[in-house]
Sequence to fold (476 residues):
Amino acid sequence: MTILDKINYTNYINGIWHRQEKHITVLNPYDNQVIGLVPDCNDYQVREAIEGASLAFKWWRETAAEARADILLKWYHLIISNLDELANILTLEQGKALIDAKNEIIYGANFIKWSAEYANKVLGTSGNGIKPNQKIFIEYEPIGVVGAITPWNFPSAMIARKIAPALAVGCSVVVKPSELTPFSALALAYLAEQAELPKGVLNIITADAEMVGDLMTSHHKIKKISFTGSTRVGKILYQKSAARLHKLSLELGGNAPFIVCNDCDIERTAIDLVTAKIRSSGQACTSPNRIFIQEDIYDLFIAKLESELKKIRAGNGFEPGVEVGPLINQAAAHKILRLLNDAGTKGAKILLGGKILTSTILQPTLVTDCSDDMTIFSEEIFGPVLACYKFKTIPEVIERANNTDYGLASYIYTANLHQAFQIKDQLDFSMVAINEPVISQYKGAFGGRKNSGFGIEGSHLGLYEFMISKYTLFGY
Ligand code: ADP
Fold:
């Protein structure tokens, strides 16, 4: 029996594999075939998960950090030893190329390992007070039950990235994965159970998104909400959380500039850009969205980019050699066609691709002669489309790159370190990659500013998102 057979029809609530009559159907984005069903929980069951997590929190927080770390490490090893099966589930429900799926699972699993290693290193501080005979202690406590709401583009890693630090510091968690990709979440919970994560500490529920959002933001036993998804939904959760002043982390949309300076290594930059773009078929909030190329190398760079992009095959994520899988659904494909159409009417040229191969597979696309008045300049593309802009000077490109409501990832390619740092200092983005195509890693502080949200995932800072300080003043 495969993991998928075991988790089909289920949710994981308070240590029980819960089934029920009403279901949500999960489809393969490549061919629209049914993969399986998950429960469509009602609010009673979501409350049950929150109550279970709240009970579990009472003693999970008292469990020694070493013991929590041991369980997390066991879970990490189980994930790695079941890599093929987990990647299979991921590609089935999300569509991305199998190699991409494997990389995502390893990327997510590393947050579990890192958090396990860090669980023991959370230290407070102590010292003298402002008067004689006073001592001060500043400690960190786990914040409590965490509500996590995650998207479909990285259905395994976005969950691991939230729950690993939360569990490591002693929080319990209720996760609502995207209804489009719930099996990767349930598969992680299945392996967490095998790693003997105690019941109630991790709960996975699938249900109406708005109902869960309402419950999480209004429930007094939830102490923190960690959300990854659209800016639209992030703002709804922010507003709704005001009533209880829930602590929030919001990882929202991006509009990453990718700045190609005239002194860069053209070949390497083009290869890196394609690597960055095709990850998750371009459906990543860190994906280069606006490619700014300095005018002296514009034609040369476009020619190199075209030859690199031509090598990329789009198709069924399971087929060997395919690097770009389907988009998540037809709505996503139509949105991109709308952006391309708008760009075309305003003077852009589609040099490569631009067509839907089947209902959800978009040919890797190269668009040149883009201008800042096009919708593609301000909207997140979320697909394998390289939209290229020409620039003259560094001050000009910095201004144009910053001319967006978003502030997540940004990229600079130049051989001049001085120039790289000057640009980096002026970019209004929370993450900058210099001569590197993949910015996300467990050691980095992943997070945004402006409409890209706030809060950190990864690095030691990611653990502090799930802790709250306690200051004690002691007189003697
Ligand atoms: P995307 O547009 O990338 O699908 P969404 O923000 O719509 O991003 O979805 C991200 C997650 O938020 C998913 O798990 C989705 O079910 C959930 N979600 C959608 N609408 C709401 C809502 N009103 N309240 C809470 N969660 C929501």
